Amino acid sequence: MSALRIVWVYPDLLSTYGDRGNLLILSRRAAMRGLPVECFEVRSDQPVPVDADIYLLGGGEDGPQSLAAQRLIADGGLRRAVDRRAVVLAICAGYQLLGQSFFAKGQPCAGLGLLDLTSDRGPSRAVGELAGTVDPELGLPMLSGFENHGGRTHLGPSARPLAKVSVGIGNDGATEGAWNGSIVGTYSHGPALSRNPGLADLLLRWATGIDNLPPLDDAWPERLRGERLAAVRAA
Ligand code: GLN
């Protein structure tokens, strides 16, 4: 079997919140199922390979975020990978820059247009716990995370909300994140997959085509999810 190739896109620009965790979690969960994995870290002065299976984009401050968008547009590799239905997980700044446009440092910036959405600025920063009921089509439990962003995101008709918000702000206080095909974007921060192992396995299923991945012992992530949900309910 050929190795599952996972690319972490631009760790030098988009890695504000421990985003490497998503790479570690995906590769570990694949390896525990006996799947060979190759991980690549592609810096912003390198071309984005077109032939990988999963691409990860992390969060970032406004300056690095706008630079990342410019370089990704000029490079074109991520767009070509998406054209061949590669799987993408994009967090916060990485999520915003997959849309048509976003704001950084008060300026409108062009995004890659890989998701049908635009982002502008909200009245205040959204910081804190984030939880929501995931789109039933994805068959996942409650999304659990932590958010920290100034932007608000508005979905067009071809982007589906990832979740309906029950705690926090997400896109706009009503919906959180977006997905279309095999692209998922979320405001759930940093190593979002540590709190959402079901989402990690969904990405692995999409990337490998293996629908019956053997279950793993998720007692620890479940404990973390339970603890955080109990904390927000108590607040
Ligand atoms: N710069 C973007 C915003 O503030 C994204 C921030 C982030 O990735 N945390 O909305």
Automatic annotation (TrEMBL):
GO molecular function annotation: carbon-nitrogen ligase activity on lipid II; glutaminase activity
EC annotation from Swiss-Prot or TrEMBL: 6.3.5.13, 3.5.1.2
Chain residues that bind substrate: 125
Reactions catalysed according to its record: beta-D-GlcNAc-(1->4)-Mur2Ac(oyl-L-Ala-gamma-D-Glu-L-Lys-D-Ala-D-Ala)-di-trans,octa-cis-undecaprenyl diphosphate + L-glutamine + ATP + H2O = beta-D-GlcNAc-(1->4)-Mur2Ac(oyl-L-Ala-D-isoglutaminyl-L-Lys-D-Ala-D-Ala)-di-trans,octa-cis-undecaprenyl diphosphate + L-glutamate + ADP + phosphate + H(+); L-glutamine + H2O = L-glutamate + NH4(+)
GO biological process, one term: regulation of cell shape
InterPro entries with a match to the protein in the record: Class_I_gatase-like (IPR029062), CobQ_GATase1 (IPR033949), GATase_3 (IPR011698), Lipid_II_synth_GatD (IPR043702)
Record keywords, A-Z: Cell shape, Cell wall biogenesis/degradation, Glutamine amidotransferase, Hydrolase, Ligase, Peptidoglycan synthesis
Entries under Pfam families matching the protein: GATase_3
UniProt domain CobB/CobQ-like glutamine amidotransferase: residue ranges: 5-196
Record bears the keyword Hydrolase: yes
Active site annotation, chain numbering: 92 (nucleophile), 189
CDD domains xrefs: GATase1_CobQ
Highest taxon listed in the record's lineage: Bacteria
Pathway in which this enzyme or protein is active: Cell wall biogenesis; peptidoglycan biosynthesis
Entry annotated with the keyword Cell wall biogenesis/degradation: yes
Family the entry assigns: Belongs to the CobB/CobQ family. GatD subfamily.
PANTHER family documented for this protein: DETHIOBIOTIN SYNTHETASE, LIPID II ISOGLUTAMINYL SYNTHASE (GLUTAMINE-HYDROLYZING) SUBUNIT GATD
Function: The lipid II isoglutaminyl synthase complex catalyzes the formation of alpha-D-isoglutamine in the cell wall lipid II stem peptide. The GatD subunit catalyzes the hydrolysis of glutamine to glutamate and ammonia. The resulting ammonia molecule is channeled to the active site of MurT.
Subunit relationships: Forms a heterodimer with MurT.
The name this protein goes by in its record: Lipid II isoglutaminyl synthase (glutamine-hydrolyzing) subunit GatD
Organism: Rugosimonospora africana
Organism phylogeny: Bacteria, Bacillati, Actinomycetota, Actinomycetes, Micromonosporales
